[in-house]
């Protein structure tokens, strides 16, 4: 089992089994986080994301991400290398060569009947929805599920990301598509930890440890 030493501060003492029988560290319910960010995330930060995804998977968190190159793929790889669960939301079939699979540990998920829920919040969060083409709108709908889940009843506990401007609440043109998820998180009081900032891991640790 891969347990990166630099993330040992994230681990509590109590160990219990999760629903699937793997020895994860869990609370009383399933826990989710969105692991996302820029396609231009620096290589060193991508490795941090892989290690962090492994650490959070061990703690019982299920990754939510979006299959894009860069940050999304790094988080997915980190969860996958130890078989930790991941829900990867696709804007359309075949995006980044991923295919819908409802049964695998790493689940590739299409909007299906939940698209109307995703689009409702995508419209609220995006400052120029009507100017987006259909492909861009599909990408924004996907971001809704990363942050809120399929129906909004299991929102992510937090968002971990990297963007060029370090945005965690207020977005700019440099935030890119990740800004949609950050805006959604702000609307729902979900904390955002941008790895652009040197103190982001310490702040995430405080949240995970309940301080």
How are the secondary structure elements laid out?
Elements: E1 31-35, H1 43-58, E2 61-65, H2 71-80, E3 86-89, E4 106-109, H3 115-125, H4 134-148, E5 158-161, H5 178-187, E6 192-194, H6 200-208
Parallel strand pairs: 1-2, 1-5, 2-3, 3-4, 5-6
Helix pairs in contact: 1-2, 3-4, 3-5, 4-5
- The helix/strand order is EHEHEEHHEHEH
Strand order of the largest sheet: 4-3-2-1-5-6
- The CATH class is identified as Alpha Beta
* Helix and strand composition category: alpha/beta
Content of β-strand:
5-15%
Provide tags for this entry:
single chain, 211 residues, alpha/beta, Rossmann fold, 6-stranded parallel beta sheet, 6 helices, 6 strands, 34% helix
Report on the architecture of this protein.
By secondary structure, this protein is an alpha/beta fold. It has a single domain, classed as 3-Layer(aba) Sandwich (Rossmann fold). The protein has six helices and six strands; from the N terminus they run βαβαββααβαβα. It has helices at 43-58, 71-80, 115-125, 134-148, 178-187, 200-208; strands at 31-35, 61-65, 86-89, 106-109, 158-161, 192-194. A six-stranded parallel β-sheet has the order 4-3-2-1-5-6, with helices on both faces. α2 (71-80) links the parallel β2 (61-65) and β3 (86-89).
């Amino acid at each position: 089992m891969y347990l990166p030493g630099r993330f040992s501060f994230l681990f509590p003492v109590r160990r219990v089994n999760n629903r699937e029988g793997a020895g994860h560290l869990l609370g009383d319910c399933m826990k989710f986080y969105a692991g996302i960010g820029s396609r231009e995330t620096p290589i060193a930060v991508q490795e941090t994301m892989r290690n962090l995804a492994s650490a959070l998977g061990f703690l019982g968190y299920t990754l939510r991400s979006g299959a894009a190159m860069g940050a999304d793929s790094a988080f997915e790889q980190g969860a996958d290398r130890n078989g930790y669960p991941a829900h990867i939301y696709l804007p359309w079939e075949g995006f980044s060569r991923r295919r819908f699979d409802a049964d695998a540990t790493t689940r590739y998920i299409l909007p299906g009947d939940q698209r109307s829920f995703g689009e409702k919040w995508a419209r609220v969060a995006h400052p120029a929805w009507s100017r987006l083409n259909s492909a861009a709108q599909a990408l924004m709908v996907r971001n809704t599920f990363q942050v809120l889940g399929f129906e909004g009843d299991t929102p992510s506990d937090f968002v971990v990301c990297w963007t060029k401007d370090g945005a965690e609440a207020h977005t700019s043109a440099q935030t890119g598509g990740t800004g949609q998820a950050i805006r959604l998180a702000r609307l729902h009081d979900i904390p955002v930890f941008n790895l652009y900032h040197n103190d982001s891991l310490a702040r995430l640790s405080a949240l995970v440890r309940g301080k």
